[in-house]
Amino acid sequence: MAHLFGAERLHLEFPTRTVFDEVTLGIDEGDRIGVVGRNGDGKSSLLKLLAGRLEADAGRVTRRRGIRIGMLDQADVVDPGMTVAEAVVGGIEEHVWAGDAKVRDVIGGLLADVPWHAQIASLSGGQRRRVGLAALLVGDWDVVFLDEPTNHLDVEGIAWLARHLKGRWAADSGALVVVTHDRWFLDEVCTGTWEVHDGLVEPFEGGYAAYVLQRVERDRMAAASEAKRQNLMRKELAWLRRGAPARTSKPKFRIEAANQLIENEPPVRNPVELSRLAVSRLGKDVVDLLDVSIVYPVTDAAPGAPTDRTVLHDVEWRIAPGERTGILGVNGAGKSTLLGLVTGAVQPTTGRVKRGKTVRIATLSQELAELAEWADQRVSAVIAEQRTAYRVGEGSKAVELTPGQLLERLGFTNAQLSTPVKNLSGGQKRRLQLLLILLSEPNVLILDEPTNDLDTDMLAAIEDLLDSWPGTLLVVSHDRYLVERVTDRQLAILDGHLRDLPRGVEQYLELRRQQADAVGGVAAAEASRPIAAGGSAPVATTGVGAAASTTVAGAAASAALTGAERRAAEKERSSIDRRLEKLQAQIAEQHEKLARHDQGDYVGLGVLGDELAELEASVAELETRWLEVSEALET
Known about the structure:
CATH topology of the largest domain: Rossmann fold
Number of domains: 3
Strand content: 15-25%
Largest sheet: 6 strands, mixed
Number of helices: 21
CATH superfamily of the largest domain: P-loop containing nucleotide triphosphate hydrolases
Number of strands: 20
CATH architecture of the largest domain: 3-Layer(aba) Sandwich
Distance between the termini: 34 Å
Shape: globular
Radius of gyration: 25 Å
CATH class of the largest domain: Alpha Beta
């Protein structure tokens, strides 16, 4: 492979610390590199050095002559005086850019809901970020540097971006270097990983799963000062091997070494034990949404248009003690409204909400308003006002930790305990916010986009803490890895209704692609019309990138699967096997509940019977899908 970039003995120093010291690395054609590391260790600075936006204090960066470099920086802003069209395609005539499949795909994948002729100044921060990303991706580049490109993208947008980057260049051409905390994205796109730490850049082969495997081996052989990080990564590795084995198909080193590392590692969670503890704290009732609908008035409706909008329609959701559920949906689908119904912040238009008497709900919100009252106080003073101890674990294995020890588990150092809250970084404030919520001892915890401002190490630490937390957990997040990691069930809000997803996030994306296909004919018809002022770009796809998507069902109709389709099908079948195993365990437990239940309580027996029927229906649906995928793999 041809060499594109080289960095020799780079040294970068800021007034308070040394960022890089004697760093040497290279980028070849075909490289797809993910950059990970703690916040503040220099990931963004590394990209700026390579792209030529920052000069090193010593060393040099060499680039192949004539190479075209594109970069999306976190600080990049689009001229607010421009329109979306001007920012993305410039002065190119419409018939020219509309004939370019790549440009249409980018606009459809990122800007389907953004008015094409709107002023940049009138857009939200997330929309401006997507416009900047679209403006970069429509260009022709040999090397693309992306700094947190998944920010402000939902699950579908992230899936589209992964497909676009994987198909942007041929296998042995072009190069990508991306900084992101989205671990699913790293695994899906990257073939190599750079870890930035302690002034060094350490390369690893493969995506995030391969990086975890190799890093555990490195930590196992490290000094005692690395023991805490080692144990944490062993647990992360245990989940990767048990919960998503398809992720480990990429590494080219011995999997046996990884198996030796985890052979004595306990399961990540004990669902039965967690459920039992949660019932003892919560009682039998948590929150039940019964035939709930939410209708909002439309204040600026055009003449003749509907004057109200139904966000949720006849939703029934009985939240069980110890339930761990992820909620998926596009922006504006009603996720926040659904959480508001659970917390009581939103009242239903019709239907009713029933809450258990012992329920204590806490929400980790996207904002940090909870910390405002302590802005001028030191971290140590803030935690001194809370509980003096926090119990982690279950039964005889329970451990009592002080708030300081919990802060240590969440990445705080002794020096940072004396830091005023207002001077903490975004990630540190996020950790402190979570700790204060946990110290209040809620038994229902709602996480609303909890991954903002957190690096991969800190995400793993928080996931480790949540594993030992015995209450009911509801998660809204665009971080696919987090949702699959900490929840056992996923629900989607589609057209105002709540739908169970036995096959998880992958099934949600398939349903969204089906919706996109259903409206594709309408979009294609609109594409032939001139764009009216303020209208949207004429593309035949929606935010899910329907033109670029391929499902296993569609592939089954062809003569044979491609390599990528076959890998996707094998991964889906493995996921189905795991879900079927989990459901069978739940069915066995449900039968035990029926046997233990008072046989004279016909109402209670009926409820348990209905729950058993739902589980068996999910098994039937999964088995049907398993047969479809297996048939596709055999063609």
